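Tutorial, part two.
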Amino acid sequence: MLILTPIRRATQIVLLGLLLGLGVLSAQASQGISQYGKPKYPDGFSHFDYVNPNAPRGGTLTLPNPGSRSSFDKFNPFTLRGVTAPGIELMFESLAEGSADEVSSIYGLLADDIQVAADHKSVIFHIRPEAKFSDGSPVLAADVKYSFDTLMSGLAHPRYKTTFADVKSAVVLSPREVRFDFKNNNSELPIMVGTLPIFSRNWGKRPDGSMIPFDQLAFEMPIGSGPYLIESFKAGKSILFKRNPNYWVDQLSKPLNVRVGFYNFDRVLYKLYSDDAVRLEAFKAGEFDALVEYRAKIWAKGYVGSKFNDGSLLKKAFTNHNGAGMQGFAMNQRRPIFQDPRVREALGYALDFEWLNRQLFFDQYSRINSYFTNSDLSANFNGPSKPTEAELKILKPLKEKYPKWVPDAVFGPMPAAPSTAPPSSLRNNLRKARELLAQAGWQYRDGALRNMQGEPFRFEMVEDGPFFLRVISAYTRNLEKLGIQVDVRTSDFALHQKRMDEYDFDMTTVRFPDSQNPGNELWDRFGSAAAKEKGSDNVIGVQSPVVDALVNEITKAQNREELRAAARSLDRVLWNSYYVIPQWYNPTHRIAFRKEMRYPEPPLYYSAEPWVMQNWWKEESK
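Running the prediction step on this input gives:
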């Protein structure tokens, strides 16, 4: 499965996980701004509703490696190469912070005042005079400009240039005032620049005053303004963060509302395990405090034993209202074998979700039915309905201009993913697949499915670990019935990520987390330019003028209705182009934890690991 890289994870936390909204549409200054209408929380609010403002502080939170990361070789999360240590996001902050119980607002963090221009072509942030970096130096407008310019340079991960392509420049107006100018009237841009990670100009400065090139920063201590510092680490094995005793927020005369109830532990320790079974047994033995589980079978059968029986360890599925996005087997469009949409559609018929859900997943999952699953932005949100007038107004001109890039099916009801539920069956689905493959020029002969040149249909499936192999084995068995041969390759996280960054794969599992308010990140995920940039999120390799046009419609939407029409139009085009074989989702977060752990009621929109790290606390045994 393709797990977010450290830079993707850091970017997702900063740009997507917290990026739940966008700027105010007036020229008045405020601590909070909202993309559509007014933010939920007024100026002067005391704390977010979803935190415990009286949560006790103290103790150590011990966590395992998130995702598949089993080692690390750098502290810099903003560059392409290497694997970043987990938890590094604890050292960085942004000008503003998103709220997890609304879809389109941010509130000042490093900034105490945000002013969006009346023409929406710029935004000014005033930095709090108390804001300081971990080395004691003040956070200044020049540091904000330096952070932006560095991330937009060739020294940082190329996704920043794609994501922030519509930002013209950062301009220092005064020591604590910075203005971002925009190329276009894009209502999302004020929030995007507000959630930009900020770091000091002195990060990487040598004793002689010279600078280490940004892309060569590895284990040089980051200089950010976040609540934690690195206390110690064992290369590739563990890393311990301690609360910065001089954290600027803790020095304020009154609590900062966007930090009340956050970061309640004095220390955060990550222990990295290379084997999932070993990690689970370590949890049962008391090696760490909480564990997020993504595999249904392990959740059902592995989290048992004496400590669960006596209440020392607990497990709970926490409901969330996150859009589920898309997860599935992605076909690399850079490979000729996958360029015919009939071939891509045919391969989808070989995945028997109902069998997998019954035999492997204990019926815990629902089928992915959209690129915006579990969201009102999905074209399937109200069932398989036809495009609305608003959607047709977008889609019809694109069909006239780019007929081959808009499948005819987008004008009908959204088709469901292939199913084997009665009256359907796997046999019938494979028969449909064979017909589609024949239309595309593939026939079974001489023991294999072959094209007109006699070449066999054969491709490689790559994954970053063995835990998905049972699913892949079931899928490839069905493909073999069609005469298709699949070579399955697994590797460790670092090697797999390198292959993903270089698009060196035929098929792999992707997970595109959904934002409640998608926008410019879609350029990096589906934009034609991103498909040519190494390390982008466009691992599929989509290069479609229609997709580009629809992403542009999304980014320029002025209200939720326009966003919904544009997103559903994009959903119809992507879904009917069959770039991904959709898998499944679960609208809960499965978390096991020690009985001493405490938590507030979860917000509407959240990721499990950041929620535990940011908002939980520990009640020490008496």
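The domain at 334-439+507-585 is CATH 3.10.105.10 (Dipeptide-binding Protein; domain 3). In part three we will examine how such features are distributed along the chain.
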